[in-house]
Amino acid sequence: MLYLKSLVVELGGKTVIKGVDFQVKRGELALLMGPNGSGKSTLLHAIIGDKRCRLVSGSILFNGVELAGLAMEERVRLGLGLGFQFPPRLKGVKLRLLALRILEKRGLARDEAEKTLEEYSRLLKMESLLGKDFNVGFSGGEVKRAELMLTLIQNPRFLLLDEPDSGVDVENLALIGSAISQYLSSNGKAAILITHTGHIAKHVKASEAHVMIDGRIVCSGDPGEMVSNVMEHGFEKCAECRRARR
Amino acid sequence: MNLEKARRMLKPRAEKALAKTAQYGLDIDLSEFRIEAGLGEGVEGSERVLESVGIDPRERNRSGSYYQVDNRTVYASARQRGLTVKPLSEALKDSENLNYYWRALPVDTDKYTAIAFLGEREGYFIRVDDGVSVDTPVQACLLLRTPGLIQAPHNIVVVGENSTLHVITGCAAMREEAGLHIGVSEFYVKKGGTLTFTMIHSWGKTVHVRPRTVAHVEENGVFISHYINTSPVSSLQTNPVVYLNGEGSRAHLSSIIIGKESSRIDAGGTLELVAPVCSGEIVSRTIGFDNSVNVARARVAGRAPGTKGHVECRGLLLSNGSRIDAIPELEASVQDVQLTHEAAIGRIAEEELLYLVARGFTEEEARSIIVRGFLSVELTGLPENLAKYLENILDSLSASL
């Protein structure tokens, strides 16, 4: 489904992604872990086509289509959906209206859009926030739930989720995890999920985990094993392990 | 006292003020315009213009109407007991109404009030008796038709004790010809009364606009004003002054100014918190397009203990050729007052655009969502269908930008 080949990406004149090969197949969920500043977010932004991330070399194939050179609008149309780590606050833009416009943009009629929104807002416990300005005065957990809701209602075939679990308490973690799992259980979806802490791993069924350090994937393997190793030893061990393997 | 005597007393002051330039805004040479009745026919055929500024020609959900073309009244109606909607000339035949004639607004405020007084012909007089609640709005429409004319309606609105009134005024030019509009408005809100006043302007780039407005609010009275300027204008300068003279009275002024093309706009509001524990706020949203020059003023003066005032001026620059100045002013002359302000001018943040494009919108759609958000002011106090109408205007404004 998504195939990254020797990807090199610059951000603000600095090479941040230094040759990444990565593959996620239909039905899979890949966890991406790594210390702050290792390039995880940049990778997702490069995939969705954030123009600040300059593709230096390599390729991004999505269902056989080369994404390099395509604008973000086109990549979104092809079925990529990015859940931002830090979505903006939009003063004066009611969450409900924004969500309905996203649904209508997808081609849903007003009553279908209302129904879908009702469903997702119930799933993510967002009902009481629909009448508020988007992210204005939201708590950390509310921002994450709102972000996931807007990402999911876009109905992307491929989810790029940037730390949906950071700053989220235990209850919300389960809520977010189960919403992601439920979404991915429908046919033909896949995802890359960045987690800094690994806490969400308990609530989703990942097929593989990868650790990224300094713009490179340094380790890939069984998600359960890797998450517990990282949680126990931190990313420093990964760096050492990588050196040992060289 | 009769009208003739009242005018005789005011005339020398007005004549002296004919050369008095206004405190703000571009100075207009009055000799380029003439003040006369004008061609002033009916409004037939102008239904679309009327609707664009909030006027319903079929008068659905309206308790009264007043139409003026140039300086002639063409229609006035009132459909509720206790409500008067009349041409000013007719209302002033009743000497009691002279108590509201140039009492809130001095004739010698500046040359615009002076010429409006000296050439005065018409305007609307709306009055609600004590204890009457007029739930659907009275609409007033002022259209400018004759080229080179000064249209100077003198409007008086009186809201009786514990009464409620909503007025929507729509003003527009019927053709693209030079003109000067000086709308003189005096509002009187008695004890416990509430007046909401909504005004939509759509003048066009050849017209100069100088509204002159003063409101007096008594004990526990409420004055709410919402102003929207939707079209280019040659120049516009307005600064309504609200005197909260009664204890516990309140005021809320909101304005939405869209500066387009080469418009020169200086729009503000002033709250005089004269009586104890009165309060008010001024909220403005200004968008600068093209080469427009926009000044957003807001002044709150706290002159009695327990008063509270707040100013919120926000500007959005959407072109490199335009300019916005936000000038919030606070003045406290007693200790126990609480006055605050916030002002911000910016452009559309790249991160917000990027975010919305990632959510599936085109860049144009993203821009219009952000602009619509920027224009969202609380449409306090309005009946539901009027609030909805204004929301729709703001929707189409932001979609068209």
How would you sum up this structure, described in words?
The complex is a heterodimer of chains A (246) and B (401). Chain A is of the alpha/beta class. Helices cover 38% and strands 29% of the residues of chain A. Chain A has a single domain (2-245), classed as 3-Layer(aba) Sandwich (Rossmann fold), CATH 3.40.50.300. In chain A, the strands form three sheets. In chain A, strands 6-9-10-3-11-12 form a six-stranded mixed β-sheet, with helices on both faces. In chain A, β9 (158-162), α6 and β10 form a beta-alpha-beta unit. Chain A is globular, with a radius of gyration of 18 Å. By secondary structure, chain B is of the alpha/beta class. In chain B, strands 3, 4, 6, 7, 9, 10, 12, 13, 15, 16, 18, 19, 21 and 23 form a 14-stranded mixed β-sheet that branches. A ten-stranded mixed β-sheet of chain B has the order 2-1-5-8-11-14-17-20-22-24. Chain A binds chain B through residues 48, 50, 72-73, 76-77, 81-82, 84, 87-88, 90-93, 98, 101-102, 105-106, 133, 150, 154, and chain B through 349, 351-352, 354-355, 357-363, 365, 369-370, 372-376.
Layout: helices, strands, pairs:
The complex is a heterodimer of chains A (246) and B (401).
Chain A (H helix, E strand, L loop, with lengths): L1 E10 L2 E11 L4 E5 L6 H9 L4 E10 L2 E2 L5 H7 L1 E4 L6 E5 H11 L4 H14 L9 E2 L5 H14 L4 E5 L7 H15 L5 E5 L13 E6 L2 E6 L1 H23 L1
Chain B lengths: L2 H14 L30 H6 L11 E6 L2 E7 L4 E5 H4 L19 H8 L5 E5 L9 E7 L5 E2 L2 E6 L4 E10 L5 E3 L2 E6 L4 E9 L1 E6 L2 E6 L4 E8 L3 E6 L2 E4 L5 E10 L4 E4 L2 E4 L5 E10 L4 E10 L4 E11 L5 E10 L4 E10 L3 H9 L4 H12 L9 H17 L1
Parallel strand pairs in B: 1-5, 4-7, 5-8, 6-9, 7-10, 8-11, 9-12, 10-13, 11-14, 12-15, 13-16, 14-17, 15-18, 16-19, 17-20, 18-21, 19-21, 20-22, 21-23, 22-24
Antiparallel strand pairs in B: 1-2, 3-4
